[in-house]
Design goal:
4-stranded antiparallel beta sheet; two-stranded antiparallel ribbon; 8 strands
Length: 200
């Protein structure tokens, strides 16, 4: 079954159970002081490619029995060192950022972020050789391009395990290193993923 059909069928069941989500109330408008994008996810566990921006997609899908993911995360449009206007409030990010993940064996995965700023690669966790290298690019309307290369090389694809400000760092795990699956580099070295000043 194609992923889109699977999501649609799951969504139909959830909509039967969660009537408020059926009414289209998955995202709400909020002040930019709350979310830099002015949009926040409120759909709870309603299956959607835009769900729970800023959270650990791989870990959540594993816990909740969602489609298996190799990697997934959210890209935002400003530097937010506290995460207060991005990851901590289920805030939507930036649409159209190009995310490229390259495995240790040279295999390359590439996609664009969706309306919520989310990106993901379906597949069995561990099917891409670790550690990864990651590049995020964004083309502005005036022709400029932002290109952000990840300094560290992770071995886990749930980006928000590290790219949150409320994570617990692993003792001795520093920026620029090849990280084990369960190692976390925390703030001030790791911020929510940023692709250029879209929301400033």
């Amino acid at each position: 079954m194609r992923p889109s059909l699977r999501v649609s069928r799951i969504c139909s069941v959830w909509c039967w159970l969660v009537s408020s989500a059926c009414a289209g109330e998955l995202v709400e408008d909020v002040p930019t002081e709350v979310c830099a994008s002015g949009k926040r996810w409120i759909g709870e566990l309603t299956p959607s490619e835009e769900m729970f921006p800023g959270r650990d997609c791989v870990g959540c899908h594993t816990r909740e029995g969602g489609p298996e993911l190799i990697a997934g995360g959210t890209v935002y449009g400003l530097v937010d060192r506290e995460g207060a206007r991005t990851v901590l409030n289920d805030c939507l990010g930036v649409e159209g950022a190009r995310v490229t993940i390259t495995g240790a064996d040279g295999q390359r995965l590439q996609t664009l972020t969706n309306h919520a700023g989310n990106f993901f690669f379906e597949g069995r966790e561990g099917s891409l050789a670790t550690p990864y290298s990651v590049v995020v690019e964004y083309d502005f309307d005036d022709g400029r391009r932002s290109r952000q290369s990840m300094v560290s090389s992770p071995s886990y694809g749930g980006c928000a395990r590290c790219h949150r400000t409320d994570t617990t760092p692993t003792l001795g795990a520093g920026p620029g290193e090849a990280l084990g699956r369960d190692e976390v580099v925390a703030s001030p070295f790791v911020l929510p993923i940023f692709t250029g000043p879209v929301h400033e």
